[in-house]
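Job type: complex structure
Entries:
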Amino acid sequence: MKKTNTIWGILGLLLCAYIWISSASFPTDAVMKIGPDFFPRLMATGMGIASVLLLIQTYSTESTAKAEAISFADPGIQRALIILVGAVVYVIVMQYLGFIPATIIFMMFMMYKLQFRQWVRMLLVSVATAAFVQIAFQGMLDIQLPMGILENFL
Amino acid sequence: MDFGLYLQCLFNALHPHALLVIFAGCLGGILVGSLPGLTATMGVALLVPFSFGMDMDVSIGMLLGLYCGAMYGGSISSILIHTPGTPAAAATMLDGYPLSQQGQASRALSMSLTASFIGGLLGCLIMTFLSPQVSIFALKFSTSEYFALAVFGLSIIVSISSQNVLKGVMSGFFGLILCTVGSDPISGYPRYIFGQMELYEGPPFIPTLIGLFAVSEILSGVEKFTAGKQVVQQVSQILPTMADVKRCLVTIIKGGVIGSFIGSIPGAGGDIAAFVSYGEAKRSSKTPEKFGTGMIEGVAASESANNGCTGGAMIPLLSLGVPGDSVTAILLGAFIIHGLQPGPLLYKEHIDIVYMVFASMLVANVAMFILGATGVKFFAKVIGIDKRMLLPIIMVLSLIGSYSMRNSFFDVFITLGFGVVGYLLQRFGFPLPPILLALILGPMAESNLRRTLVISQGDPSVILHQPIAMFLLILAVVSLVMSYRSQRKVAARMLAAKKANEADK
């Protein structure tokens, strides 16, 4: 726990320093002397104090809690990372391929990564979800979803 | 109280279209609540985009239905599989699961439904009659009091939502820094937008919270996922016996009232309400030692309180514009999206909307009871749904929900980014509710503080001369100091226990 708390404490201090330095360029009210930098700096100071206190607490008390470090060798972390990358690709591809095909492919990919191997059920769930969202958002709520390659067919 | 207008709103809420939407919201709420890992906050966040295309009064009904439904739904998995569907149902598990192990799952579920219904109705009534009074009082508030109220709300949620108070404080400050992104509320100067005009109005609220509360949970679910189906007990009884109702009636009423009042404290939610009510039921019982072994009063106390809390949490939302808990924070966002700013002026300018909230809440509680009674067997089966199908569905709904806000892919990437942030923060013990509340209360705190300083010509001590503001600020400091001290005591006790264990070995 000591190592992770130290990292978070330092990250908090870095954020505080960044806010203080970057807000120096904000314009100041000539009369009030309080400008757009006032609140961010106030909050950054609070963050800085809390970070220092966290570091002091981490090194002054004996902790019973165990650290839950993130290890890239952990299959669970790998799975979460692959799904995250898959989601980013899904969002990019959706703009060209369209919502329905991209969703079907992404959902089948995600289910496959979650060790689901019943192909018919995978396809049915993916198609049903894509159809439901398309009907609910576009048909009922009038929210335009990217059509992509299906633009001329639907 | 204008009863004529109230009846008119009740009549509107019973219109087939509005009624259908309330039932749909409630059904969605019970489903979301009963599935472990899907919280009421996540459910409301996912449902808000669906409300864009609807009229304000109809969409309120749907969101309130979901809120009430999810509070009850959480108890189903608490009782049947020893996993609370929502944090508010954690106290229900203490006696609900032992009852289930004794083969009395149906008895516990039927009591949970009845207690939720009566607790919810009590909360609704207290909200209807109390919130207008609070709003009259709040009309006297100036900018100093609003600033102090925002600080108080944040301090409470930091105190109660984290095992490590300092991490809760850091989460709160992170949220407050986050809401300084975008235009300055006084001068309009753009801050930290890095040339992205999409950020000019601040981080988009719904995509941010879908990321924090839905995508982070999906990533966590994917990481900790284990294949295999959940075995769930059969459910038969749908209503409690008269003997059980008689036995628990006082506990239920007490729970409903406790829940409503705890819910009305800005920041305190259903989980706290349920545990306080459970503690009170245990304290006043003739057989407190039997609590935790399958006492039906334990289920009644916690369920009536967490549903009572739904009405209570609406009091500060409507009358002060300050959310009572995480779910009402999102409801506040939904109100703002529809062009309404909750607060004392809402009672003057849009009293019809306020009464519509009262009426919809009443109908939502009845809908929850009807759906709970008729569908409990179905909901019990839903818990066994394969997560390998569920997680991809929620991921798609999350991403499309955030896209639909402004038809913007930028917002979808914001959602994914906050999903990662939320996942990391939660994993390392930083609570997320303070960030959500800070996103709501931050702009309120900043604009009111700045206005106060403009009026006082830069003298901050003016806040300390306002008795109500001073009182709220003292309460904020006291709550933080007390929770820090209690955290240190718990840590010392755990350390002593660990050393004693090592000595034994």
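Summary: Chain B has one domain: 3-186+205-504. The beta strands of chain B are 182-183, 190-191.
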